[in-house]
Amino acid sequence: MRAPLYFRLFLASILAIFWFELRFVSNNIQEACLHSLLVLSSYLTALYTSIILYRLLLHRTRHFPGPRLLAATKLWHAWKVRSSQNHLYLEKLHKRYGDFIRTGPREITVFHPEALEAIHGYANELSKPDWYDLLNPEIGIVAARSKELHDERRKIWNPSFSTLKEADHPYAIHLEEVIRQIKSNLGEPVSIGDLLYWWSTDVIGELLFSRKFGALTEAKGRYIPELMRGFTELLGPCSPVPWLCRLGFTLPYVTKGWDAFMAFCKERVDEQLQAKVPKSDIIGRLIASSRSRNALSQERPLLDGDTIAGLIAGSDTTPCLLVYTLTHLAKTPAYQERLLDELNAHGVEDPWETKAVQNLPFLNALLNESLRLHNPLPTGTPRDTGSEGVTIGGKYIPPNTIVVAPRWNIARSPTVFSEPATFMPQRWLPGCAPEIHDTRGFMPFGAGRYQCIGRNLALSQARRVIAVLVSCFEISLAEGEFGEKVDEEMIDHFTAVPGPVKLSFQRRDM
After folding, report:
1. pLDDT digit string, tens, across residues 168-187
2. Under 8 Å between Cβ of 386 and 125
3. In which order are the strands placed within the sheet that holds 402-404?
4. pTM of the full predicted structure?
5. What is d(CA 234, CA 251) in angstroms, rounded to the nearest whole number?
């Protein structure tokens, strides 16, 4: 991640060579420029030729199949995913090269179902690579590469979730506004993605900062989701080459969206620090923990990083799950009827009660199938094999190699799940699993020390939203809507951004 330093040294070397040529070789500026360019081009040609030959012929990962251009440079990967659809590019590679593919000079992408447990499971000893330094020094809980620092931050975060009582959740209040807006547009096309992302923005604003963003009710509040999208869109094409992001940070206007969101997060922390009465929201509790240990100044970058992580993870993942679940329900009305039957059979009189809908088999099956087909983190979270390497599916991956297990692709592999491209929630019901049902390929929230800290909260709220909306409305695709673009035009900005889809709602006769 020293790309900015190397870039500056490169520019300095150009100027030094030019000065030397002009001072000691030729007084002619044009000749000095030509000589300087000749010296520099000769050096760079020799340097990069030797690097590429080493990577292609001698590197420890040379025996793995994959495109030769990817073996030579990750810049080719960035070019191929410039449209921010890394998952589709990896799917093409998977079909051509198999389960183990060299997708970089020292990177192996693994599509074997064992990969998720081996890379992200409880027993693994793999570490986070320099990809996670993108936010440095504002690293926080998600970007902390040190296991000790991560575990320490997680211990501080855990009480913030465990002490959130049901009555404290703003989910229900904002869900009422969602329902009000749907009722005012009965029979009309509703951009369900926009509505749910506004909902999640308002919710996370209150959970993190006790602040009402007003995205659902005011147009001016909707700049916050746009800020977050501007922040993550850089990760789409540049995730394969993290040093390219760091280099971009040194160039004016290239990272305008990234910088704006970083500034927004720091302003929210400043507000919390200046509050006369300490707040009991998540960031307020993190600040209180730092103050209690007299570590506020040292941990300020961590607080900024935790704020960034909280906003992105809290507002991007749950609406993604809900958009896809509702779209599949709209495509298959029989699933809505089956869910209603389940609510009645289990005596659920009030679907607003999260405990009442927690253990409904078909509702959970709907969410599991949406997570399988549309993982909110499609291809990210790389790991480093360290000094020992790692064996996955009987295949040894050498030491100090980056390994990636793309969840979106693994869960859609025909060797992992039968009819992998079909939305089939019944596969998750007891006794209904099809012939091929390898649950090792299903790890939507990670596992072990890095498991998503908000997993239970996200699932409980997703259950409530689906149960409430299906109880209140008959859901269908809007007129002229086929529900294909929501998947085909999904964007991989580290977190998934569903493509456009419009649904129609009619009041359900109770």
Report:
1. 467 788 999 999 999 999 99
2. yes
3. 100-104, 107-110, 402-404, 383-384
4. 0.92
5. 14
